[in-house]
Amino acid sequence: MQVPAALVQQIQIAMPALARKRRSVNLSSVKILTISLAIVLLLAVQGCQTLKQTEISPGAAADVSGTPAPVLPFAEPAPVARELDEDLVFSYLVGEIAAHRGELRLSQAHYQHAAILARDAYAAERATRIALHLKDYQAGLASARRWVELAPNDITARQLAAVLFMRNKQLDAAGEQLDALVKIADARGSDGFLQAASALSVESDRVSAELLMQQLHERHADDVRSLYAVAVLETAQRRFGEAETRLRAVTERKPDWEQPRVLLSRVLVAQNRRDEALAFIDESVRRYPQSVLLRTTYSRLLVDAADYPRALEQFRALHRLAPQDDELAFGYAMLATQQEQWAEARPLWQALRGSSERRDEASYYLAQIEERAGNDELAIGLYRSVGGSELKVDAVMRMAQVLGRSGRLAEGREGLQQARISNPGRATDLYITETQLVQKYGEEMEALALYDAAIAAFPDDHDLRYNRALFIVELGDFEGMERDLRRLLDEDPDHAEALNALGYTLADRNERLDEAFALVSRALKLRPDSPAVLDSMGWVLYRQGDLEQAAVYLRRALDLSQDDEIAAHLGEVLWVSGRQADAKTVWRQALGHAPDSDKIRAVVQRLQAGLQ
Q1: Nearby residues of 528 by Cβ (< 8 Å), 6 or more positions away
Q2: From the DSSP assignment, how many helices (H) and strands (E) are in the chain?
Q3: C-alpha 193: how far from chain center
Q4: Which of 40, 220, 470, 542 could be disulfide-bonded to 226 (CB atoms 3.0-4.6 Å)?
Q5: Could you read off the pLDDT of 49-67 as tens digits, one per residue?
């Protein structure tokens, strides 16, 4: 193959000594010729060293650690003393430099040549992988044959050789490589059937891959691992029905094997049979209560099913089984926090703070617990201790809320402003937090000025503009609100929250009701299950005089969210409809959830006074 002149020049610069005079250099003694050549030779030497490390004869002795070396099934070829002459160095250099330049065909040819010259498994491996990338399966097969010849106990060599034989329609030869793979893996203490399934699972020729895997199983029918591997391949090919049948057979033959039970539960989920999966894995856990893997699988299925109380029970049991497992402890702590089991979550987070990998997360979530418990100073200290991770900004924002509630608004704002400088990618989030903080604990004009500054800095940020619209309408500036929302909708016509806010506000003002209905209808198509949008539709219909349909929408909204404003609206519609007893029931139940609701008390007083 013709080598480009520029590449030849680059190689000649890299090997001036050999370019001037033909020399023979022993491969193991080469240290450096030039900087570029040293890199290539290092790769070559590493390849030879790797090969030497795998040269373990069937009667190999123990390694330096005292552990007996595996007795491998295939005799390694005797090392060949090959001196590194100009031709060999040239092949290595062209192979490596061409690969870096993207000239892969040239690189593959020269690596294959180097593998022949030096009998080097590393060069054969490089040639094989490059040929696979180029989809040159004939050249890849030639290189893979050489690789297997030079490293007959290399599992990856056998995997790729099997794949290349299959792609070249030589299925019998591919099967021989898979048989060899199983023997090597057994000697090394791993599962060759699974490694065969892994190699075949990504093949586009699913029929040939399935046939090879099925034939491998038939040749090893007494080994239940082969049946499991067939199921693994079928799962990868999304043939869940066949995989389920085989997995059930595996669990019958070897009931205490965990992995097939886990895979069967996933196969059932993939077939939209989650309840069956949960029942099966529940029975498995009851049968093998000490299995961490089965309980972990069960807990994750329960979380996916949003059955958090039962998931928490499983995490409790997992923590008892593996108290030193930080990953399990983290999941347990997260779930306990989500379920507001503060007393249970607190010691878990405290323990995880001792882990360098989990310290920031543990400090952050522990701070939330202390914040919920009213231990503001402790929460502030924990938030401050969160390091330079992504959580640092979130910790600053939460800390600012605690500081604002504690009467230290200026301190909270200072932290947000400093974080905005050091974290420009989160500037809008920090601005939003600061505006909400000032709205709640500061002066109205301060909040307006801050919104103006934030939107001047980020004029295209929809969240800032939307939040300002909601704030200024509370101050009585409906025109300003509509201006902000109209601009937002010009840029994003499907902004459901803006559609809903403008439509609801028009209805609440009893103005332009047809327009309000159109706006909320568009929002409802985008968010059909949103309690806020359902509430708005009910309110628009009430203003239009359709009391019956208004009650239907408001009832749906209240079923989804026990919000006191929704309850106030539904109660008003029922009252005006002449169903005062029903209205009082709705209000009474809502006050059970929100005993201090000003919205409900205001509507009750207004309606009882006879005001619409």
Answers
A1: none
A2: 34, 2
A3: 28
A4: 220
A5: 333 333 333 344 445 455 6
Contact 466, 484 (CB under 8 A): yes
| Residue 379 CB contacts under 8 Å (≥ 6 apart), including other chains | 367, 368, 370, 371, 399, 402
Q: Residue 38 is encoded by which pair of tokens?
A: 């040293």
Q: What percent of the chain has pLDDT over 70?
A: 86
> CB neighbours (10 Å) of residue 585?
13
Distance, in Å, from the CA atom of 404 to the CA atom of 156, rounded to the nearest integer, reads: 60
In contact, 32 and 17? CB cutoff 8 Å: no
Dist. CA 471–CA 438, nearest whole Å: 11
Q: How far is CA 321 from CA 288, 317, 355, in A?
A: 12, 6, 20
Q: Which two tokens stand for residue 551?
A: 């009650």
Tell me the pLDDT tens digit for each residue of 227-284.
999 999 999 999 999 999 999 999 999 999 999 999 999 999 999 999 999 999 999 9
DSSP 425: G
Identify residue 328 by its one-letter amino acid code: L
Burial of 204 (0-12, 13-18, 19+ CB in 10 A): exposed
Euclidean distance between CA atoms 5 and 11, whole angstroms: 10
Q: Is the dihedral of CA 435, 437, 441, 442 positive or negative?
A: negative
Cα(131)–Cα(134) distance, integer angstroms: 5
Long-range contacts of 136-145 (CB under 8 A, 24+ apart): 136/105, 136/108, 137/164, 137/167, 137/168, 138/168, 139/108, 139/109, 139/112, 140/164, 140/167, 141/165, 141/167, 141/168, 142/112, 143/108, 143/111, 143/112, 143/115
DSSP 8-state class, residue 372 = H
* Three-state DSSP state, 524: helix
| Spans of the chain, pLDDT less than 50 | 1-62, 64, 612
* Amino acid (one-letter) located at 127: A
Tell me how far CA of residue 8 lies from CA of 15, 17, 559, 597, in angstroms: 11, 15, 77, 83
Kindly provide the b/e burial profile for residues 289-314, where b requires at least 16 CB atoms within 10 angstroms of the residue's own CB.
eebeebbbbbbbbbbeeeeeebbbbb
| 250-283 burial: b if 16+ Cβ within 10 Å, else e | bbeeeeeeebbbbbbbbbbbeeebeeebbebbbe
The tokens describing 366, both together, are 């522990």
**Amino acid found at 417:** Q
